[in-house]
Model the fold of this input.
Amino acid sequence: MSKSVKTLIAILIFFAAIFAAGNGYFYAKTVSLENTMNNKDDSAITKTKTTDTVSASITTTTPVKTTDTTTVATSSTDSRPSSPSDTVVVGQGETLFAIGQKAGVSWTQIADANGIDADKIKVDQTLIIPKNNQIGFTVNKDMAASLQKDVDAGKYLFRLTAVDTAKADSPSAYGITSTDTFAQASIDETAGSATVTAKKGDKIYLITLIQPSTKGAKGIWAIESIKSN
Done:
């Protein structure tokens, strides 16, 4: 073999080696690039899932608890520990004016104390007679003692609160209803006394209460008087 042929063969082998190395490098780069792209896709998927998870946790809300308010119903008159001290029963042919003259009280004050229309009184109707723009109450001690036992047993627990007792027992004096606005003005559980205001329209009434049986947090309340201001 001539020297020139050997040289040509060596040159061909050199270029073949370079070509093979180039293909290997290109293949390695391609594989590396594909792996990088796949990793990016996986990362994007992971990030998307994470974002979705965070978003879900943010949009989930916990229901807000609201404080329940107990509505106190008007009590029946025969279940109250106290009742108006001065009352009259309307007789046949009597008018509010005549009743007022007998009681020494203006008929308008009687109408106001009972929350009634002066022209609509009825025979056998019981009317409250106010004194000095105030209705006095008398406590029935036997009823109070019985109610105290009931409350001690877990019944009628609204009677442990002066405001709730005023809501239940003041209607219908002065036309007050349990839906009017009541607020506690003062309280002394040591002495067993409290005052509650009742706002009806533009008028404010002062309700005085006492604890006739037990003094303190476990004692029931009873209305002592209601004053028209």
